[in-house]
Q: What sequence folds into this?
């Protein structure tokens, strides 16, 4: 099994709430005891903390069944956006819908995205653009003191900024705008 598969198998075993020694887990998953410690460290990086009981009768215990506090970052969203074009069309729609939900979570939870401007203003812009993408409608924007009519196609993230990509009817070209630099009319 892969490292990820073994890590998830270990977590599934620990979700029973019972204490397991490192050697018991290693035997059940068929890996070395050292790998069990590596899997525990990987889970902790993901925000899933497993209790360690020290001593001769010690081991690992996990008492928070299905309480995974795993979140997405802008980098995760960017990676998913790069993968979408490679998917088969039947899977692409499902992943695109899921990605839109993840983007919303990232915007509403990541303070780095809203540091440079009012958070409510950014949220409103995001909501208007998302609705226009969903309904395939045009929006009027002001960008660098010029009025433009844009048909939004995509919202993307790059280096802590949110970008709108769409067809500018004014410029008759596909353009990308930093969401923080546009005014939606």
A:
């Amino acid at each position: 099994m892969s490292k990820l598969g073994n890590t998830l198998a270990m977590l599934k075993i620990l979700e029973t709430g019972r204490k397991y020694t490192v050697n018991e887990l290693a035997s059940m998953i068929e890996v070395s005891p050292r790998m069990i410690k590596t899997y525990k460290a990987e889970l902790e990086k993901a925000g899933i903390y497993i209790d360690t009981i020290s001593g001769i009768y010690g081991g690992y215990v996990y008492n928070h069944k299905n309480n995974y506090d795993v979140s997405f970052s802008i980098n995760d969203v960017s990676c998913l956006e790069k993968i979408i074009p490679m998917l088969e069309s039947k899977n692409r729609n499902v992943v695109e819908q899921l990605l839109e939900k993840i983007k919303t979570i990232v915007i509403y939870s990541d303070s780095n995205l809203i540091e440079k401007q009012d958070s409510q203003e950014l949220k409103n812009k995001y909501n208007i653009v998302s609705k226009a993408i969903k309904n395939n409608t045009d929006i009027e924007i002001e960008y660098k003191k010029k009025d433009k009519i844009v048909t939004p196609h995509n919202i993307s993230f790059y280096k802590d900024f949110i970008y709108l990509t769409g067809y500018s009817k004014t410029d008759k070209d596909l353009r990308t705008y930093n969401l923080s630099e546009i005014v939606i009319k």
